[in-house]
Specification:
2 domains; transferase; 14% strand; kinase; globular; 399 residues; Phosphorylase Kinase, domain 1; Aminoglycoside 3'-phosphotransferase, Chain: A, domain 2; EC 2.7.1.100; ATP-binding
Length: 399
């Protein structure tokens, strides 16, 4: 019988004392629940001096915003812990450190990041971290290259694919990204004023074929171990530092999905900025987001190419020029997946604060409409956009 029980704050303190790896575990005296997500309990554990020392995270057996009518597998906690451990091996400077994991309790103890801030909030507040986009590109390049066919022996790669199979969480992604926004569904969430815009998504045959192609790639292309949900709310930043967290959607999938999701969240912020800042400040911040996107992709592509040149182990994939061909395919995938992120965050179940916290209702609707229009365009014309600079030009065209 499973030992699973939902943790209380005191349970979290006692667990952190036992498994936090601290020199003075008895100093831990208090826990505060800080999680604002739908899938987990997250506790910050404090010592007697009021200093936060460690984090305890436990998976819930259901989606909290929906309730027990939407059950979830607890095995996602294992997958998250193992994804973060694997990513930490390849990018320790940009991945949260996992100290301990218990599969029966679906709980992990991890590094405290109180010195950092969630990137999404900083982007909304127009607080700029000049290295963040490049650091995210480095994280994606190192984690995705080292878990790909370029680097892993075929036997090891296939064993890893089996180890990280994640059907329940992938089904959530498949529904929220590729199904729900393009049909009438009770999970969809958008203002009535956007009904015509959303109906146009359902009626656009060209768009739905392009989305079907992206979904098929998500189904069938086990290219590398993805984070699976790499948005600005799952990234912590500080001066000179970036750390990825929250990898319960980790699985082997198309590399462009992680890259596209990351770019998509920068574009969601781009769309929402006029609702948070004055005209001149919003224009300047938007230019910075476009620069961030170029830096993210160019850093990723340059680093992935360098790793392929230095460390590829497969004879065929080491052929001169192949890594460049592969990166072009990743890029086109990324643009399409970026578009699905823009749309699903505008009309689907889970929105983003970049737009939802805009106080002026008319402006909020306009920002949502912008995200939908931009997302639709990027999905349809993804194959025509060959560089980050061309993407920026297209964003300007639809803004």
């Amino acid at each position: 019988m499973s030992q699973y029980r939902t943790f209380t704050a005191q349970d979290a303190v006692e667990y952190a004392r036992q498994f936090g790896g601290l020199d003075d575990p008895s100093s831990l005296v208090e826990a505060q629940e800080i999680g604002d997500g739908n899938l987990n309990l997250v506790f910050k554990i404090f010592d007697s001096a009021g200093v936060s020392r460690i984090i305890v995270k436990q998976a819930l057996p259901y989606v909290r915003c929906v309730g027990e009518s939407w059950p979830l597998t607890l095995d996602r906690a294992r997958l998250e812990a193992q994804t973060l451990v694997e990513h930490y091996q390849h990018s320790p400077q940009h991945t949260v450190k996992i100290h301990h994991f218990d599969p029966e309790l679906a709980v992990m103890v991890m590094e405290d990041l109180s010195s950092h801030r969630i990137w999404r909030g900083e982007l909304i507040n127009n607080i700029y971290y000049p290295q963040a986009a490049r650091q995210l590109g480095e994280y994606l390049a190192h984690t995705l290259f080292h878990t790909s066919d370029f680097y892993l022996h075929p036997h090891e790669k296939k064993a890893q694919v089996a180890k990280f199979i994640n059907p329940e969480m992938c089904e959530i992604t498949e529904d929220l990204f590729f199904n729900d926004p393009y049909q009438i569904h009770e999970r969809n969430n958008y203002p009535a004023e956007l009904e015509n815009d959303v109906a146009a998504l359902r009626d656009d045959a060209q768009l739905k074929i392009a989305v079907a192609s992206l979904k098929h790639r998500f189904f069938s292309h086990a290219e590398a171990l993805l984070h699976g949900d790499i948005h600005s709310g799952s990234i912590f930043v500080a001066d000179g530092s970036l750390k990825a967290i929250d990898a319960e959607f980790g699985y082997f999938g198309p590399i462009g999905f992680d890259v596209g999701t990351a770019i998509g969240n920068l574009l969601l912020n781009f769309c929402g900025l006029p609702g948070h800042l004055g005209i001149r400040d919003a224009a300047a911040a938007r230019e910075q987001r476009l620069t961030d996107i170029q830096e993210l992709w160019n850093t990723f592509a340059e680093r992935f190419q360098a790793l392929a040149n230095e460390k590829s182990r497969d004879a065929a994939l080491s052929a001169p020029g192949y890594a460049s061909v592969f990166l072009k395919k990743i890029w086109h995938d990324a643009i399409g997946f970026c578009g699905t992120e823009l749309i699903r965050r505008s009309v689907g179940l889970s929105h983003v604060a970049d737009i939802d916290t805009i106080q002026d209702e008319a402006m909020r609707h306009e920002c949502l409409r912008h995200a939908i229009t931009l997302g639709k365009a990027l999905i349809v014309i993804a194959e025509l956009i060959d560089s980050a600079e061309e993407l920026v030009a297209r964003v300007r065209q639809y803004s």
